[in-house]
Amino acid sequence: MVIKPKERYDVTNPLLNRTALRIPHKEFKNQDSYIKFFKSAIDKANISQSQKDFLKTWIDNWAEENNITSKTGGSRVCETCLISTFAKKFCEHCVRGYLINNYPNWSSNVYEIDDLIRKRQKKTIRPDYIVEWISFENFGDLTLKATGGCASVYSTVWHGGRYDKWNAVEKKLERTGDKDVILKLLPNSSKPNKRWFQEVKQHLDFMMRTNPVVKCYGLTREPTTQDFMLVLEPMTKNLGYFLLENYSLNWKQRIEILYDITYSLMKIHDSELIHRDLHPGNILQGRNSNIWYISDLGFCGPVDQEPGEIYVNPPYAAPEVLCGGGHTQEADIYSTGIIIWQLTTGVPPYQGMYRDDQILPFINKIRNGLRPDPIYGIPYDYKEIMESCWSGDVSKRPKAEHLFAYFEDKLTKIYRNELILPELNNIITLPELNNINVSPEIYTPRSYKIKC
């Protein structure tokens, strides 16, 4: 498949990450000098001209967003609407006005959904980060990619594609053209409850910013069942299967992946959100890149979940959640610790220790302190931070920002050749992985009625 210029973020973003980590922010007086340096580095990079152009545009858009939200960089009066704006290449007020004028041209036929999307559009900051209602007839044929848990996932083509940029001459938003997307069907959502609407609201609010999670373009509705569907950015594979195919990783590669994961989780927690179902099946690799994104933010349980019922993936669920204590940010951290263990070994935890018909005894073992087998020969501080994540005492688990700071520090030193560790480039090879058959069901959460 040919990658269109507008889809090259995943191809070129590694350069942005690597460049940012090599240069201390304090060396730059302001954002403009920082951006000037990035563009200079891009010009020298061994990538195509179209990729260079795309990266520069992406950086400019990020700067525009930052200028608008922080009210920095100098304001100007828009020549069209005569309202002051901090953006240089578009006007957020004109973009919002265009969207408001388009309200009569679409409807989901559900007041709460229309109201939710319109309120989000009135807060739009960037023309390429607009959530919208998308009529189902705008999609091509659907191909089922996966099913299980509380959702089915389809691939399709969105005819016309998403909003992409503001045309100041014609005073209108322009679209990308036909675009590959993923549709995630949410079963039994035809009559959503208050909790479901709250999850949609949080999900879309988070997607309106440049956040390192799988992007959601909006909502649509399956015409037969009337169930709602999320329209998502397509990815390649999940971390679990990636590790089985690429288990010979060195420490630099592991830390790069954990840098991406913990950065994404930090942004989720900074927004006062909780993921609630974090496991390698929900960590996806961007197309044609080595960048990792957290997906399935929210929507981790059925719409009609009954009282006293928990919806979890037991090997990755915190003991307090398995006791019915509810999901918290600390529970997300616990799940991250299990993911760190799996990233180190390449295999899911607790192999051979549980089956569906014996899940309750296994859950009781987790409650009583069972954790993954110890790993020998790994860096001490890496082992220490991993095990602190799955502490039975939630107060001893690190915050997401502390996890990210740890992996950012390691990666920064690696890129600047300041971290010299004997094991840095060592590869942990586990020949027995060839004999492990991992079922997709391991990443499928289920509902359990349990008592603590």
Can you walk through the features of this model?
- By secondary structure, the protein is an alpha+beta fold.
- It has 2 domains: 109-234, Phosphorylase Kinase, domain 1 (2-Layer Sandwich), CATH 3.30.200; 239-449, Transferase(Phosphotransferase) domain 1 (Transferase(Phosphotransferase), domain 1, Orthogonal Bundle).
- It contains 13 helices and 14 strands.
- The chain has helices at residues 9-22, 31-44, 49-70, 92-101, 111-121, 194-207, 239-245, 251-270, 319-322, 329-345, 359-367, 380-389, 400-415; strands spanning 76-77, 84-85, 132-133, 143-148, 151-158, 163-167, 172-175, 179-185, 216-221, 228-232, 283-285, 292-294, 309-312, 446-449.
- The strands form 5 sheets. Strands 3-9-10-8-5-4 form a 6-stranded mixed β-sheet, with helices on one face.
- Helix 5 (111-121) runs parallel beside helix 6 (194-207).
- The protein is globular, with a radius of gyration of 23 Å.
Primary descriptors:
single chain; 452 residues; alpha+beta; Phosphorylase Kinase, domain 1; Transferase(Phosphotransferase), domain 1; 2 domains; two-stranded antiparallel ribbon
SSE layout:
Blueprint: H1 9-22, H2 31-44, H3 49-70, E1 76-77, E2 84-85, H4 92-101, H5 111-121, E3 132-133, E4 143-148, E5 151-158, E6 163-167, E7 172-175, E8 179-185, H6 194-207, E9 216-221, E10 228-232, H7 239-245, H8 251-270, E11 283-285, E12 292-294, E13 309-312, H9 319-322, H10 329-345, H11 359-367, H12 380-389, H13 400-415, E14 446-449
Parallel strand pairs: 3-9
Antiparallel strand pairs: 1-2, 4-5, 5-8, 6-7, 8-10, 9-10, 11-12, 13-14
Helix pairs in contact: 1-3, 2-3, 5-6, 8-10, 8-13, 10-12
